[in-house]
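Interim report to the steering committee. The following record documents the input for Peptidase S54 rhomboid domain-containing protein (222 residues).
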Amino acid sequence: MLQRDTSLPPAVFALLVVNALVFGAEQLIGMTAADQLALWPLGTPDVARTATGLMRVPDFAVWQLVTYGFLHGGLFHLFVNMFALWMFGTPIERTLGTRAFTSYYFVCLVGAGLIQLVVATMAAGNGMIYPTVGASGAVFGILLAFGMFFPNQQVILIFPPIPMKAKYFVILYGAFELFAGVTNTFSGVAHFAHLGGMAFGFVMILYWRGRLPIKPRRRLNL
């Protein structure tokens, strides 16, 4: 039986548990059975050739803009996203509060999905049909928030293992994602979804800070 770790804020804890449970369900029922929950391009044929061969392609559905973020392509994919969610999401939730953090997470998740939907639909027009899964769009939004809220906090890259301030880490990572997306480096990674999560997160933080034409009811000191 899972015991709640009281050192984790509630939203981060819940997201970790739900993602782990969904991944376990994927292993039991098979990824094919979960295909309806992945994010699919618009206007795809009923049957098409994908990276894994000829298969029946589900239609796009609005709920996929949320559900895709709880599916993962493998244990490593899940681990990387959940590790980043724990590492960066914990201080962000403690800064924002659970309600605002949850709103921020899902805005980044849906925003990343919308950007990826456009990119994947364009690729499908060229005969490249593939689903998108993973929480990384929301995680990149959280990473951006960490860089904005704690700009001078030291973080260490995994490779190469060098320390740098969070603001530079976020800028460097964002620039890499843009380069990789434009040049199609590391194909199979949703680089534009990552950028979409960061972009929607940036806009939401500007909104909370009162820097957009539409003002929040309560301005946050972030």
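The radius of gyration is 18 Å. The committee is asked to note this result when reviewing the revised timeline.
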